[in-house]
Amino acid sequence: MRKKIVAGNWKMNKTFQDAEELLAFIAESIEKKPSCEVVACPPSIYLELATDFALDSNLFVGAQNVSQFESGAYTGEISAAMLDSVDVDYCIVGHSERRKYFHESDEVLAQKVDKLLDHNIIPIFCCGEQLEDREKESYFDVVKMQLKNGVFHLNKNEFGNLVIAYEPIWAIGTGRTATPAQAQEMHNFIRNLITKEYGKETAGNTTILYGGSCNPGNARELFSQNDVDGGLIGGASLKGEEFIKIVNSF
Ligand code: PEP
């Protein structure tokens, strides 16, 4: 079901005390039901803390990563079943930082998506091109391949449980945001790809988020584009007031 979502990707930031303070601030700020679904994606060590806040508030909780394996001898990994057991709602998959620093291939990402869906957790599947892809005008091809390899193996039913996040790598953490027109162009391209693969109804029901230096100053215009259904927010999600301003940008 297509919905408006603002999700905060905290990455590897915050101590336990800071996390508790930020979660309390967000939960309190969205006491009056916000006009979008609000998701906090803290480091995994704070997920249970976050789902405790979610119990008594309008907050949803996302993980930042999951293992492609079901269980067993995979030291340091966290499985989809474990995320499910502490009531996690969403999980980011395929973030460009995981692709770059942890060499996560399309094949592994597809397995992670499958595991999450097996455990009723909604994957937030990230795609997006590098600056050189944009300059070479191959950005549509890059995103098409990422979607083809990462999520288009799903059947229509399964795909219906997915959220897509378009995150141009050149915009992540750089302060250089895609223009609303650039975001709309790619989101529309993605929705058309989904139409070809799964039909118009599924495409119309898919939530597609924008990510990359989104802040309180540019969120309203980005979110007002026809095919932009909200944002995946990095840096600005670490400051409660900025994050809530973005949440209130619809
Ligand atoms: C992200 O890493 O998902 C992201 C969008 O980061 P930032 O908002 O800091 O560019």
Describe the protein in words.
It is a single chain. By secondary structure, the chain is of the alpha/beta class. It has one domain (5-247): TIM Barrel, CATH 3.20.20. It is built from 12 helices and 8 strands. Strands 1-2-3-4-5-6-7-8 form an 8-stranded parallel barrel, surrounded by 6 helices. The longest helix is centred in the last third of the chain and has 19 residues, at 180-198.
Itemize the secondary structure elements and their pairings.
Elements lengths: L4 E5 L6 H14 L7 E5 L5 H9 L3 E5 L16 H6 L4 E4 L2 H6 L4 H13 L3 E6 L3 H5 L3 H12 L5 H4 L3 E4 L13 H19 L1 H6 L1 E5 L7 H5 L6 E4 L6 H8 L3
Parallel strand pairs: 1-2, 1-8, 2-3, 3-4, 4-5, 5-6, 6-7, 7-8
Helix pairs in contact: 1-2, 1-12
Bound molecules: phosphoenolpyruvate.
The site of phosphoenolpyruvate has 13 residues, from β8.
